[in-house]
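Lab notebook, bench 4. The sequencing result for the construct came back, and we need a structural model before the next group meeting so we can plan mutations. Quick request posted to the team channel:

Model the 3D structure of this chain.
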Amino acid sequence: VGEATHGALRFRSVEGPLTGPLTVDGLVYEDMHVRVEVEHAELDWNPYALVFRQLSVSQLEVSEAKLVVKHTSPDPEQKDAITHLPFAIVVKQGRIGGFEIVANGVPLLFSGIGLEADWTGDTITVEQLATHYAPLGDLTLQGELRMEPRQLRIVKAQVGGYGDLQLAGEIGYHNHFSADASWKNLRWPQAGAALFNSPSGKLSAEGAW
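Done. Here's the predicted structure in token form:
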């Protein structure tokens, strides 16, 4: 795996039978733009799917994971982020106890994540994602993302939990972003007196994060 990803993906140890459940410790993915850390993961997979260049995971359990977004300046000599893996990844049923995203030193904490998704070519399709984010409450997400050399493009995304929110846009690895959003029945918080309530609306924004 390390050779196939030019050292970007590595792990400390893997235990378990080749055809059965595996335990992976010390999993790290790192490039010029992001670093992802998974200390402990358990997965059940179908090794025969590798014949079709697919990593098919029927069950995935991760206790904690962390994503650090690196703040970098545009550099024509800098290597682009990986957009394709040498194989497709399919996760049919995944669960992550806690997921921390750190950008510009600011952490965002998500808990109780349930996931069904696949990464084929440069496209990540999220069939279903459910999580809890303390400031907003329970959230759901379905959508399609495209991995591009200098940005993550949100082709389409539907966010539920506090209304019906549709999103599209891009998040650049060099701190730029743009987004188009539309919504119906947007309300926050989910319970109790509403501090924000909007029957419908649209918003476009761009800038730096």
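The mean pLDDT is 88.
Will bring this to the meeting.
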